[in-house]
Amino acid sequence: MSDLEALTPDRRHMRRALELAHAALEAGDVPVGAVLVCGDLVLEAKNEKELERDATAHAEMLLIREASRRLGAWRLSGATLYVTKEPCVMCAGAILAARIERLVYAARDPKGGADGGAFDILRSPKTNHRLDVTAGVLESEASAQLQQFFRAKRE
Questions:
Q1: Could you give the strand order of the β-sheet that contains 102-107, starting from the edge strand earlier in sequence?
Q2: Residues with Cβ < 8 Å from 79, sequence gap 6 or more?
Q3: pLDDT of res. 26
């Protein structure tokens, strides 16, 4: 059994999301990677805002669009989304609208996160969908990637 196979599914998928985040970092984008699992379908994406010159090209948005296209449905019931950073308001809205069942993320985002970081959209009793949220999976590694990126931007 490889080291990757020995990890729990959450850690294994988050490890892959971190690899995708690293690829985003190398491409000059905010290092966010994501993996969406829905039944046998496993999709991957990284932030591509700079590459696509599109403010909505967040990893989460790209995955939701692709999963909906592949599954032929906007409802992604039963899906789990793994992402290296707490989703922003836009992505949180899309996650709720897509009826994603479970969200697993690594690093908190106190300046823009929508799961209690800056806003509390994902757990708001006012929304029409509830999902299971697990925060902090491989948080230190994701936080280090983000800090590296923003430190380099300031220099």
A1: 41-46, 33-38, 80-85, 102-107, 132-135
A2: 36, 37, 38, 67, 98, 100, 101, 102
A3: 93
Measure the CA–CA gap between 115 and 88, rounded to whole angstroms.
8
Active site residue 60: yes
pLDDT at position 22: 96
Out of 44, 48, 60, 86, the active site residue is 60
- DSSP element (H, E) containing 82: strand 80-85
pTM of the shown model:
0.94
d(CA 95, CA 26): 26
* Nearest partner of 94 among 124, 123, 125, 56, judged by Cα: 56
For 67-124, write each residue's pLDDT tens digit.
Answer: 999 999 999 999 999 999 999 999 999 999 999 999 999 999 999 999 999 999 999 9
Q: Cα(39)–Cα(60) distance, rounded to whole angstroms? A: 18
